[in-house]
Amino acid sequence: MSTGPERPPTVVVLANDPVTREGVTGYLRSRPQMVEVLGFEDRARADVMVVLATDVTSQTLAGIRKASLETGNPDMRVVLVADSITEAQLTGAISHGLVSFLPRRQTEMQHILSTIVSSRAGHAYLPAELVRKLVEGLRAMQVSESSDFTLSEREIDIVRLLSEGWTTEEIAEKLSYSERTIKNAIHGMLARLGLRNRTHAVGYAARIGIL
């Protein structure tokens, strides 16, 4: 029996600049078949939070942390649009739900929209240079050697491809599995290791020296 079309992701937009916020909000509201835009007061219902900034500052990160904690929704995804971000800032933002970072000057409205939809679906987008910075930083961290936190050979192959930006469909084709098998493997790995999302899985793999 059909359950009908999946509802559009709900999104809340945060920005210090009201002109920027209204511009992005207006565009998203013109695409009601793709996303449902919420007011800030309804942020607890948001699937995705879009944060718009020029420079990422401690105030920016504090705002992400505060908004994330206030929603009480551990599954909410954060999409950050800004000029640049450091590895330390990236690591901090990931711990509060960041899954995608878009370079502001190279990002069009349509890209923000598509990233909202894909982030809600569990995908992550980080430019290659940011992934390298994340890997370099996490490699310096000490990690438990417990066998409970090891990865299987298949999981290692999957996470390596995730780190390179491959989609679930592309990974399935590359490794000769069904897409459902790959999705289940990723879900099981995240659940077993207590990781929030695929970006965290990439960071974890780097910490244990796989990448």
From TrEMBL:
One of its GO terms (molecular function) is DNA binding. GO terms for biological process: regulation of DNA-templated transcription. SUPFAM superfamilies: C-terminal effector domain of the bipartite response regulators (SSF46894). Residues 144-209 form the HTH luxR-type domain. Keywords: DNA-binding, Plasmid, Transcription, Transcription regulation. CDD domains: LuxR_C_like (cd06170). InterPro entries: Sig_transdc_resp-reg_C-effctor, Tscrpt_reg_LuxR_C, WalR-like. Pfam families: GerE. It comes from the Bacteria. PANTHER family: TRANSCRIPTIONAL REGULATORY PROTEIN NARL-RELATED, TWO-COMPONENT RESPONSE REGULATOR. This is DNA-binding response regulator.
